[in-house]
Known about the structure:
The protein is of the alpha/beta class and 375 residues long. The protein is built from twelve helices and seven strands.
Amino acid sequence: MVAKRGSDRQFKVNPIEWVAGKPIKDSTLVAFRFLGSKRRVIPKLDTILKMNGVRNCTFGDFFAGSTAVSQYAKSARFTVKATDVLRTSYVLLRALIQVIRLPQFHGLRNQIKSAGDGARYERVLQYLENLPGKPGFIYDNYCPSGKSSRSRSFFSDANGKKIDAVREEIANWRWDGKITDLEHDFLLASLLISASRCANTAGSFYAYLRKPDKRISKQLKLPRLQVIDVARPHEVANMTAEEAADIFEVHALYLDPPYNKQQYAAHYHLLETIAWGDRPELYGRNGIRPYAEIRSAFCSVQTAAKALSTILRKTNARHVILSYGKNGILDEKEIIQILSNFGEVKIYEFSINSYQNHHTSSNRACERMYYASKD
Length: 375
Ligand SMILES: C[S@@+](CC[C@H](N)C(=O)[O-])C[C@H]1O[C@@H](n2cnc3c(N)ncnc32)[C@H](O)[C@@H]1O
């Protein structure tokens, strides 16, 4: 089958105008610094879905990353099935997608007084923010004065100790049965987001900045998460997209795999350690945790094409939307070939304000989405 190119190729989309469900304002998406986040692309994705008649169905987001696309899909009243290999993404998915009512933290009633159940979440966050800092694994390894840190400066000493204190407290609450697993992940998601906001990095955690960024002096503040109140049985997982394609039945499937050799597991190693709450052996100048188990097949020339084909062969989706950067491991010809085995292919291109880091000189980027349909 030949890909349809023609008029769709140079594609300009107007600002967001959603028809189904409550419109989501950009400000309601949780801002999370994440390489390749599609936060800014969401209005384009929304328009592409509408143009192709994709509404009110089950929507898969199998490379969920920051969860921006899943949050959009939940808000636009799709039933969401999402996964990512990162534990960090999984915790965010649990908090922002799986949770459909603000947790009440009933089990903390005796410990944290509040005017009513609705107010308890705020009091719980205030309690955690006011905990005295406590040196632990993050302080020891990633803060300038930590005993094993070799002067690594990912966080200020004060924020490193605070992260350790909050992480330990919520783990103890769960251990003692005072909070549920979902309440635990709801609080942990706030901690992960706040840690990324006060980190002395250029975006990812691959390395810390030798000349400290002003973020490092920000006080750790736990963001108040808003629950997108859409009572549907959203499902989230912490597995590969290749595995999820076997398990999650979806009508529309959004795929946003890595397109170069950079392993996300290495770039987000520090958040992964906070998410797992473990004490791994660390390697190298930047104290990276081992990540062999979650190396992505999409980051290798030898395996990327096969991995994409596997997902498309396994999924029962009728519509597939693929984001894939130019100059990636797979070139346009290979992608079209693989997608053509699935259905009719269209290509959309548009320009957006790109994710910026210290090495980015331009703030405009050309993004591309491939759409393939069995209809
Ligand atoms: C480009 S990012 C996705 C960004 C996401 N769409 C967003 O808006 O934030 C790629 C993501 O794919 C994940 N990943 C890599 N290989 C994977 C695989 N085989 N299965 C599932 N997730 C994978 C990475 O952990 C990373 O979060």
